[in-house]
Amino acid sequence: MTTTPQNRRLTQRTMAFVLAGGRGSRLRELTDKRVKPAVYFGGKARIIDFALSNALNSGIRKIGVATQYKAHSLIRHIQRGWNNVLRAERGEFLDIMPASQRMGEENWYRGTADAVTQNIDIIDSYEVDYIIILAGDHIYKMDYEVMIREHCDSGADVTIGCLTVPREEASAFGVMAVDAEGRITDFLEKPKNPPGTPEDPDKALASMGIYVFAWPYLRELLLKDAEDASSSHDFGNDLIPRIVAAGKARAHRFDISCVRDPGAPAYWKDVGTVDAFWQANIDLTNFIPDLNLWDRDWPIWTYAEMTPPAKFIHDEDGRRGSAVSSMVSGGCIISGTEVRNSLLFTQVHTNSYAVLDHAVVLPYVTVARHARLRRVVIDRGVTIPEGLIVGEDPEEDAKWFRVSEKGVTLITQDMLDRRAAALS
């Protein structure tokens, strides 16, 4: 039988448009050299790999990634890890879409909706029926086919992915008020008194920043918005409230489409602060983590360097290479170091008599002898000097490093260099 566009899977008729231009300033120095979606996560991946992997695993083979702020690291990662996954000869694409003065004289995308508007011609060339707008800076596993199917069956103009959160936590989000049929009756940005859900007044529906549209409908909407001088050209501020007001917006519950183990919670994290980033990585070292990175049926694809296995050397009292309740990536050498409840990325090398406790250590870090590091995030490429102690004296740590509200210390090479210069 000949396959026509009408009888293909919905995801085969859908494009994923990933918004990956946000700076992520709340991650502080972690985003000084890279955009938030390019920040490392989970031992070997980048944050954007979750949205891209969800699209690929859902069956979407046409993907665009809009980049803007300090995009080199992100673009290089996509080129190395993703360009060989999708095959153009089969009608599969992953296009990088940097802000490039494609319309008028603006250097940058003016808002999330404008990022799509400036690439209408590219999206047209994909010949898709539907488009799913994704944020490239969240950690979660989701089958987008389920959400797209719900959108088609409901006849809504837009379907919005929503998290079910405790009502007292919902003030940090855009919140949806819905009726019993799932139709969105109001959209409130960070309300002081969030509305509850129809079935539970103590729960609220928070926007995930995921939107499904029929492409012809969204295309017309974007062109009208581009001509509106009063618009900020943003989905959350402009387009979505207009559709909600017209009564044609639907809420999709993440609980329905979340990919998880039986009995596990619906996992979604915005790792947008140093505390949240540290905690989400450390959580992966739990006996049974809520986020399963070992799931071979829904893998998180990424660029993987060719590295040797991790190595642990020395076996003497006080000088034993060991790791307990930790994740240690390829290329690591744990030489006479005690590692506990920590996550070490690729090619981390530690030396004798050092201690790492609840440490998130990004790639290519070297830890010298006798260093003791507790509740830290160490940026890529840092060389920890001999005898450095962090995590035992918050006042001393704060003189040289970034100490978060919850007592996590962020260490970068620039901070260490300034400390060395001051102490010399």
From TrEMBL:
One of its GO terms (molecular function) is glucose-1-phosphate adenylyltransferase activity. SUPFAM superfamilies: Nucleotide-diphospho-sugar transferases (SSF53448), Trimeric LpxA-like enzymes (SSF51161). It catalyses: alpha-D-glucose 1-phosphate + ATP + H(+) = ADP-alpha-D-glucose + diphosphate. Keywords: ATP-binding, Carbohydrate metabolism, Glycogen biosynthesis, Glycogen metabolism, Nucleotide-binding, Nucleotidyltransferase, Transferase. The record marks 68, 108 as: Could play a key role in the communication between the regulatory and the substrate sites. Pfam families: Hexapep_GlmU, NTP_transferase. The keyword Nucleus does not apply. Transmembrane segments: none annotated. Its EC number is 2.7.7.27. Pathway: Glycan biosynthesis; glycogen biosynthesis. GO terms for biological process: glycogen biosynthetic process. Residues 308-411 form the Glucose-1-phosphate adenylyltransferase/Bifunctional protein GlmU-like C-terminal hexapeptide domain. Alpha-D-glucose 1-phosphate binds at residues 109, 174, 189-190, 207. Residues 16-285 form the Nucleotidyl transferase domain. InterPro entries: ADP-Glc_PPase, ADP_Glu_pyroP_CS, GlgC_bac, GlmU/GlgC-like_hexapep, NTP_transferase_dom, Nucleotide-diphossugar_trans, Trimer_LpxA-like_sf. Belongs to the bacterial/plant glucose-1-phosphate adenylyltransferase family. Involved in the biosynthesis of ADP-glucose, a building block required for the elongation reactions to produce glycogen. Catalyzes the reaction between ATP and alpha-D-glucose 1-phosphate (G1P) to produce pyrophosphate and ADP-Glc. HAMAP family: GlgC. Homotetramer. This is Glucose-1-phosphate adenylyltransferase.
